[in-house]
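idk why but the lab printer keeps eating my pages so im just putting this in chat instead. protein + aspartic acid:
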Amino acid sequence: MALLVQKYGGSSVGTLDRIQHVAERVIQAKQQGHDVVVVVSAMQGETDRLIQLAENLTAEPHPREYDVLVSTGEQVSMALLSIALAAKNCKARSYTGLQTGILTDDAHMHARILDVRTDTIRRDLAEGYVIIIAGFQGVNALGDITTLGRGGSDTTAVALAAALKADECQIYTDVEGVYTTDPRLLPEARLLPQIGFEEMLEMSSLGAKVLQMHSVELASKHNLPVRVLSTFKEGPGTLVTFDDKVMQKRLVSGIAFSREEAIIALSGVPNQAGIEGKILGKVSDAHIEIDMIAQYTTDKENTDFTFTLQRKNYAKTLKIVEHLAQELGAVSVTGNENVAKLSLVGIGMRSHSGVASTMFQALGDVDIHIQMITTSEIKISVMINEEHLEQGVRAVHTAFELDKLGEHPQHIGVVAQSV
Ligand code: ASP
Ligand code: MG
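predcted complex ->
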């Protein structure tokens, strides 16, 4: 008998029929003799709908009240699943984050879990109940409801599994696991049997939405293997776990991407020490996060400064930068709000050379212009026009033979889709 934590995402509980299906799955696990703790997301589209309601009232809803509002989506699905289970004669009890004691810090809208109380859960499990916990939410020291950031139910599941020392943390979703790239963009993407924590973390931070980044961080910190699998189709899914020898042999592991990107470039900025800090200082004062940065000194007098950011902040940032350009006497400000970031990830890059040149060549062969590049030890990211994203992903995917995953063990790769 094992203790399982099973998380069901928004699409898995998106309709009453689907909730019935999830109930059957839970009952199946129970009948196999397992103790089951279920974490649910809000019904598909519900969190977006709630956010929209608040934003219709004001562009910046009060964070405390925002959390009170958006946490309700999960409360609906946990109760419905519990009702469905009880109607099928399966004893079940649902709890919100506040009721269970998912203790977080004060950072409303993107809180971090500090501690998880398990006494109520353990008591109910001992009495034979299936426990259903609302994902995505917790409570701070003041007793206020907090939420964990979009996709935060994954993190609830991992935190619970770690606190309960569960035998397995299963993340049920609407795809069969983690793929070499998003199968919705590229049908030839391959399912990965395994992926390392480090690569998965990189993939999640680069736009793969299959697992929330913090959940991967937490799983890796607790050495807790996580299995991503489909609610609707039987299969082994993908095990997210420690990097092993097989994974280390891979040249690259997968392609992540994010669409909602933008670039802003200042050129002909009079060169002076500290100019970069001045530019970015103004941007960060407005609480705008930037991603890639490139700076190039054209001659002794002038420098060009380019950076990327999330598209939603483009208009606001462009205004700030235009203002600054006037102040600094820069020659021009240009921007592009139709770019996407394509990233190639793999721990094999540490020990193999030529990955970047193969990637750039593959993009060049299909006439895609790279507008900006950043690299780290295990990833290479490029900014390209969004309209070329699919073509670019395909070119790189093919160049590294990710579509032949498993056929050439030294080339096999990994990763991710948006869910
Ligand atoms: N319902 C929340 C969201 O849509 C949390 C989650 O689904 O994990 O972001
Ligand atoms: Mg999710």
